[in-house]
Amino acid sequence: MLAAINGFSPFIFAIVIPLAYPFMVPLGLHWPINAVMLLNIQTLGYDFIQGPMGAWNFACFGATAGVLVLAMRHRDTQMRQTATGALAAGLLGGISEPSLYGIHLRFKRIYPRMLVGCFVGGLIIGTGSWIMSLPDGITTPAFVFTSLLTIPAFEPIGLYAIAIAGAFFTSMFLVMGANFRTPEQQAEFEAVRDAAEAAAVAEHVAPAAVEAGEARAIDASEPSAAAATAATATALLERVAIEVAAPLDGEVVPLSEVPDPVFAGGTMGPGVAIIPAGDTVYAPAPGVIAAAQPTGHAFGLVLDGGVELLIHVGIDTVNLKGEGFDVKVKNGDRVELGTPLVTFDRKVIEAAGYPLITPVVVLNADDFGDITPVLEGTVTAGTPVITVLPKRPATDAPP
């Protein structure tokens, strides 16, 4: 059938193959095609499938390159490492699976842009084959993985190189321009990243404060991590429990009731959710603002004692782009229990159709022991709703 399509129109074949492969590979349906390639080489002396397949592969690698650039720009260490390995495997080994399973299938915004790259690469091959009167399009006498190292295996090499470059850079620039995360996912990532960076700096500074054994005044003008150092060191030494209060009036419910799988499944961390009764979010404990989103929908805090906390006001409210939110704090501000963080207009959020339910999540749960919701039902702001216990040292474990 593939030979029939290519014999009827190499132009159509060159476009169909790159567009089909992104859906065949995740299902493993590309493996039977490999047998057809080998049979073509055995019977015809060349194969006509691998050329168009190269357009798909390089569109895939280009999307990964776009993710890598964004990861570096966004200071996303984990994604930068994943994308670097996947891109190396692709460009040098012609292997698409690390890109697909490690990145592309996790973020729904990538595939449509990658498909455009596939189409562009296939269109270049099809058009070039028509202009050059190539009866079988781009061919190769060997079974190879389509990587940078195997470009010389294809004929005509110039047309193939132009096609895979077009596929690669189209996907790369489209992903870079649109981002691979949704606005909601990006805002959540930035809140987590900023809180983690602030906590990392605090952990670096805290040992000096412990060794000196001196209490010092905390100045609100100091950087966020240094401002929390003394209290963090004290909590670590005394091994006291940290109480997180309700940041707003309302009804406390389990995280599982949040209509978002990331929060409901505990991916972000343990905590509770609150269905607001009021319109103001307050600091749930003394600490420092690590990330105050200008849209007002999310706040990352590093509490005294080192707890990294995310307060996410409503679900998908980032799409309001700040409408209905009046932010009261900025990054680096020192806050106390009850300091107002943001007020929001319930009518604006409800009119837009977004749930008001507000997750309150501990992001660095692995740094602590038990994290326990202590209350459900109606609460007022300032009432403890989560208890965070310090991690027991190994020497404290029972024999």
In brief, what are we looking at here?
The protein is an alpha+beta fold and about 400 residues long. It has helices at about 1-10, 10-25, 30-45, 50-75, 75-95, 95-100, 110-130, 155-180, 185-210, 225, 230-240, 260-265, 345-350; strands at about 240-245, 250-255, 270-275, 280, 285-290, 300-305, 310, 325, 335, 340-345, 360, 370-375, 375-380, 385-390.
Structure description:
The protein is an alpha+beta fold and 399 residues long. Helices cover 45% and strands 17% of the residues. The protein contains 13 helices and 14 strands. It has an eight-stranded antiparallel β-sheet. α2 (10-24) crosses α4 (50-73), α4 packs antiparallel against α5 and α4 (50-73) packs antiparallel against α7 (110-131). The longest helix has 30 residues, at 183-212. The radius of gyration is 27 Å and the shape is elongated. The termini are far apart. Mean pLDDT is 85; it is low at 202-238.
